[in-house]
Amino acid sequence: MSLVQFNRTLYRSGPAALSWPRQVRAGWWYQLKMQAQSGFVVMVSLVQPLIFASIAMADQQAGNRTLPLLYYALGAGIMGIWSTVVFGCGGALSWQRHQGMLEPLVMVPAPLVVVLLGITLGTASVGLYSMGATLLWGWLVFGAHIHLVDPLAFVLAAVVMIVALGLLGLVMGSSFVLYRNADALSNALEYPVWLVCGLVVPLSLLPGWTHYLAYILAPTWGIESMRSAALGGDPWVAMLWCVVASLVYLGLGIVLVGNVERLARAHATLNFQ
Amino acid sequence: MSAVTVQRANRTGNFWRIFFVGGLISYRALFYWITPWQYIPTMLAAPLFQILFFVYLGRATGVGSTTFFVVGNSIQICSMSGIYGMTMALANERQFQTLSPILATPANRIALFLGRGLPVLVSGLQTTAFGFLVSALILNFRPSPKALPELALTVLVSTASCTGFGMALGSLGLRARDIWLTANIAYFAMLLLCGVEVPLHQLPGVLQVVAHVLPLTHGIAAGRLLASGHHLGAAWPYIWEELGIGVAWAVIAFLLFRYFEREGRRTGSFDRL
After folding, report:
1. How many angstroms separate the CA of residue A87 from the nearest CA in chain B?
2. ipTM value of the model?
3. Containing structural domain, residue A121
């Protein structure tokens, strides 16, 4: 029996919790394929980040400050990931309900949070397109010097940040569902997070009170960690904070999804449109 | 009074009824963000955060003054209404399957078409006025009081011009399968191309040519001149150009509307989604 077959047997015959990673992985892969077919997602994760990267890098070349182009290329990439998360995950539960899929998803033996985790992680992973696109764009069009000081730490930081954003997406999806106009909320949340997390504007330029908001948002630590790995510096402390933020989001997500499921069952609104 | 005079008076009355009443009804029916729960986050909060984001990006790159970004973005945010609103006002008729009944009526097409632009224009002016007002309150944007009426005129012309462009996109929506993707790309491309965030001379030659046929480019240039203390005479050429471009886009839009109406009748494609 090969290791893969052994794992499959274990997952299928063991306690239910053993099959959760498989369910998350299946949801993640399915969501990734589905999102890649959406014109809107392609716009948000490819076209929009390229436009913002072009603006930031053109301003950098026209201006008199000396932050490197890679700084802006990375920031614009994460802006794209955030946009994908805020639109894709923010409305994830609402969308399932709108499509009449929430009822079957609640009915399956797997916990709803496990099902949703696959969806939100898949959505956040689609955002990686934007990171690749802005780095390539910066190199091809603006002549950005793409040299990563610590490539391994950079890749690890990117993975940690995607997971953190997927978990933040879980929190958003389960709280936005209580708000009938979740899409409007997503519209309003794009720019503030880009700004507060210091994705293309250094945090030192922002008023002090915004820093407290920045500290509880994973993109702040994600970009800090990736920039340190790419441009030089210690990426590990920021990465650790990103992991801590992820665990907090996971805890919050479990509570919120449970709450939403309980309320939706009690009020019979699983299929409410 | 002869029968011909009565008929002519009725026709004129009908024209204005369709223009004003029809325009208002269509706005209420088709503008998706009309409720406060949608309007405030989408039409006020998101544009406000856009202004803040780019003002701080300007400070980070050292490319322009606060006035440069406040004027550019405050005028550009009228396209939230001009592009998205106008696209909704025309293309949503097809989405909601009401296009065929409307085009079966003998209503004057110019009144039917232009009437939809008026509420969108007013909504765009509100958004821009809000952008300027909040910038004055929190970003210390202080144009000379003498320049305010002239700035208001520039904003009116720019918003009207952008509405003309939005009409063209909306007309395309009578035929195109996914006009929202085009509208989204147009909105973000205008940030880059119309000199909103990047000085025009910084763009490659081809993009500068494109910028000159797009709405807002000249209006923003005029607005910046007026806000920095220049007299109206210096801004007039830009205002006239903006007006000319707006009229040209409105004419193109109407021709597209009539063309797609004829094609729709011929091929029965009004309700085909």
Report:
1. 13
2. 0.91
3. 18-266
